[in-house]
Specification:
Elements lengths: L4 E3 L10 E3 L8 H4 L4 E5 L2 E4 L5 E4 L3 E4 L5 H8 L18 H14 L6 E2 L2 E2 L4 E2 L2 E2 L5 E3 L3 H9 L41
Length: about 190
Amino acid sequence: TCSHEFNNPYQNVSDQDTLNNSDTTNDTTQNKYLRSKLKLIKAGQFVDGDTNKVFITYDFYIDSTEITQAQFESLMGYNPAEFKNPLAPVENITWYQAIIFCNLRSKKEGYDTVYSYTSIDSTQAIDLVCHWEKVGYRLPTEDEWELAARTEQNLEYPTDDGSLDSTKALYGQDFFQGSTDPVGSYPPNPN
């Protein structure tokens, strides 16, 4: 799955906890899946799996759920998911496909494209550059994702209380059910 981030570490972000960043004027079935809530993640710190203390010195926004298959297909024109369900997370994509999606989403919503490249396809990019100073969608760094997932409470797992069982995530025996669950099916973490 992929999660996308709206971020400009050099710009002050508002005190708003969430930012609804979508066009609701044309409410077709497909368009309703494009609505997403971006969550403000405040600068902070956490202890990673190797017991290193990691500091993020800027605020950033991140989607509150994974990107759905409907969102992906509406911009990319195809759905590569093995387990088809428009409300489930898109899976079976490459990092390069996620970058293309980020740029298309930025363009659609009137933001800068954060990634530039000479050419790109699902397996490679030539002259790929991430322009960190631009305001638009990009993939979160590993540390940004981990801060968002662990929260200020430094949770072990990205669930509502940091514990892990099949009521909080697609986990254990349920993981082998042969499908994915719709995004937002489980309680969110406190972030």
